[in-house]
Amino acid sequence: MTDMPELPGLIRFPVERRFMMTGLMSGLTLATTRVEAQVIHTDTAGIDSGEVRVKVSDGEVPTYYARPQGSGPFPIVLVNEEIFGVHDYIKDICRRLAKAGYLAVAPEIYARLADFSKITDFSTIFRDVVGKAPDATVLSDLDAAVAWAAANKGDAGRVGVVGFCRGGRNTWLYAAHNPSVKAAVAWYGPVVGPTSDIQPSTPTDVAAKLHAPLLGLYGGKDGGIKVEDVQAAAAKARAAGRTVEIVVYPDAPHGFHADYRPSYRANDAADGWARMLAWFRKYGVA
Q1: Its pTM surpasses 0.85
Q2: Which of 76, 111, 127, 203 is deepest in the core (most CB within 10 A)?
Q3: From start to end of the chain, where are the E strands?
Q4: CA 140 → CA 55, 87, 132, 224, 227, distances in Å?
Q5: How many structural domains is the chain composed of?
Q6: Alpha-carbon torsion angle 271, 72, 168, 275, nearest 10
Q7: Are β-strands 74-80 and 103-107 bridged in parallel, bridged antiparallel, or unpaired?
Q8: Range of the domain at 187
Q9: In sequence order, what are the beta bridge partners of 164?
Q10: 249 in a domain, yes or no?
């Protein structure tokens, strides 16, 4: 096929990539066991919350936000999802942060690759979604979410980032990517793993480049993340003059904050949440 000839008055528009998700899923993920009785539901009294579409390089990413009512500006917390989509658990985290005084924003960074409302198989997510998401695109989407927040009653001078599971990994990466981040909190994010052309670095690889103090919250009985690997990443960061604190809950498994799953450990989750808020206060996000 030959190139289209140049025609007088022709305006070329970039081709927008087709997104698998144009809106956020409702309910909880179908790809993991959940225990409804322990799920936390945070109300919307005193806060504004909902779904928006954030402009990114190739279209719009569905995004959830929650913020206190009022004129602001409010400190921004960027929320990195797990691997199951921005479902009700992630949305509730945003509302909890809004109740604590933050503008929380959670973009659906996998919207191009999958419709999470239809996936029931855990392995499919790793193979067809997580493994095919370029880190450069993820980081760019996160930048766009922060920019949206700053334009919608958020304070661009007070930005924190938090993430869970794969989102914990992305929290490490984002703290090394964005120099405006003041504090980061990674909940059981893997720090080592396979790399590829589209995912070239692990958190350990970028540990020495962190722009912000990072708090890592990990489970001593996490079957997929070795505590010694986490401590090694922290040591690498400290050797480069970075501030990293690692808290290990000895009896906690992976996903101990996820109140919709059997892995939930209420006491450890509450302690970690309090430590997270204190970390944000200590390093100027609050």
Answers
A1: yes
A2: 76
A3: 47-56, 59-68, 74-80, 103-107, 154-164, 181-187, 214-219, 244-249
A4: 11, 21, 15, 28, 30
A5: 1
A6: -20
A7: parallel
A8: 36-282
A9: 187
A10: yes
Residue 168: which pLDDT band, with cuts at 50, 70 and 90?
very high
Q: What is the 3-state secondary structure (H, E, C) of 37-85?
A: HHCCCCCCCCEEEEEEEEEECCEEEEEEEEEECCCCCEEEEEEECCCCC
Give the span between the Cα atoms of 64 and 46, in whole angstroms.
17
The active-site residue, picked from 94, 165, 257, 259, is 165
Q: Are 167 and 141 in contact (CB under 8 A)?
A: no
Residue 76 in domain: yes
Digit-coded pLDDT (tens) for 236-280 = 999 999 999 999 999 999 999 999 999 999 999 999 999 999 999
- Whether 254 is a known active-site residue: answer yes
- Residue 113 falls inside a structural domain: yes
> Which of 222, 257, 259, 268 is flagged as catalytic?
222
Q: Among 187, 141, 178, which Cα is nearest to 156's? A: 178
> Would the CA dihedral through 145, 75, 204, 225 be positive or negative?
negative
Of 254, 257, 259, 268, which one is the catalytic site residue?
254
Please confirm, yes or no, whether 222 is among the known catalytic residues: yes
